[in-house]
């Protein structure tokens, strides 16, 4: 049995209409996230020992920001077009605010979670789906064609909380669950 991943993120609310609109054109090889799973990752700890949860929560208590609005830019394959494991929107509005939160807090959160230091630069993104593994390379190619054909939807919402996430108990319907959330 795989150990669950843990991460600290900003929950993205009111994404039901966005996911519903994307579902109308998404290829069957792409598994879209449940709207309740949409988030902006600040720090990804991986399979963190549960004993580290109090330390991560302690760092989270220090994070403070004014709620801010986000809007979407391009839908991109991540980590690259050659080997996408996710399809994510970059941010137009809210980009600078999320970069600042990542740059200010990612290292402390990773350290508290016992995770290695981050090597990648901050890249705020809203993951909306993943290629299904059983479809292999075909899923990746279909996803890239789909992403390239989409026009960016008019989606705006406010980000007003931070949360510690892990895998959902039953991942057939939801990917993640919030363990603890703090409103700003």
Explain briefly what this protein structure is.
The chain has four helices and nine strands, in the order βαββαββαβαβββ. The chain is an alpha+beta fold and 184 residues long. A hairpin with an 8-residue loop joins strand 8 and strand 9.
Mean pLDDT level: 94
Helix share of residues? 25-40%
Q: Write the CATH fold name.
A: Cyclic Phosphodiesterase, Chain: A
- The helix-and-strand class reads alpha+beta
> What is the topology, as strand order, of the major beta sheet?
2-6-5-4-7
Could you give the count of β-strands? 9
Radius of gyration, Cα only, in angstroms?
Answer: 16 Å
Order of helices and strands, N to C? EHEEHEEHEHEEE
User: What's the domain count?
Assistant: 1
**CATH architecture classification name:** Alpha-Beta Complex
CATH fourth-tier homologous superfamily: Cyclic phosphodiesterase
Characterization of the model:
The protein is α+β, with helices and mostly antiparallel strands and 184 residues long. The chain has a single domain (6-183), classed as Cyclic phosphodiesterase (Cyclic Phosphodiesterase, Chain: A, Alpha-Beta Complex). The protein is 27% helix and 33% strand. The protein contains 4 helices and 9 strands; from the N terminus they run βαββαββαβαβββ. The strands form 2 sheets. It has a 5-stranded antiparallel beta sheet, sandwiched between helices. β4 (68-78) and β5 (86-91) form a beta hairpin. α2 (53-62) runs antiparallel to α3. The longest helix has 19 residues, at 95-113. The radius of gyration is 16 Å and the shape is globular. The termini are far apart. 33% of the residues are buried.
């Amino acid at each position: 049995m795989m150990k669950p991943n843990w991460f600290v993120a900003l929950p993205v609310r009111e994404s039901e209409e966005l996911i519903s609109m994307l579902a109308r054109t998404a290829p069957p090889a792409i598994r879209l996230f449940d709207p309740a799973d949409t988030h902006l990752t600040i720090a990804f700890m991986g399979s963190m020992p549960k004993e580290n949860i109090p330390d991560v929560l302690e760092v989270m208590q220090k994070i403070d920001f004014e709620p801010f609005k986000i809007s979407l830019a391009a839908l991109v394959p991540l980590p690259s077009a050659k080997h996408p494991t996710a399809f994510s929107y970059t941010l137009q509005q809210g980009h600078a605010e999320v970069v600042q939160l990542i740059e200010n807090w990612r290292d402390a959160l990773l350290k508290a979670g016992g995770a290695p230091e981050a090597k990648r630069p901050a890249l705020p993104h809203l993951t909306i789906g993943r290629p299904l593994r059983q479809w292999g390379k075909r899923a990746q190619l279909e996803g890239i064609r789909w992403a390239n054909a989409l026009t960016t939807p008019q989606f705006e919402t406010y980000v007003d909380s931070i949360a510690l996430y892990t895998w959902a108990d039953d991942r057939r319907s939801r990917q993640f669950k919030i363990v603890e959330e703090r409103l700003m």
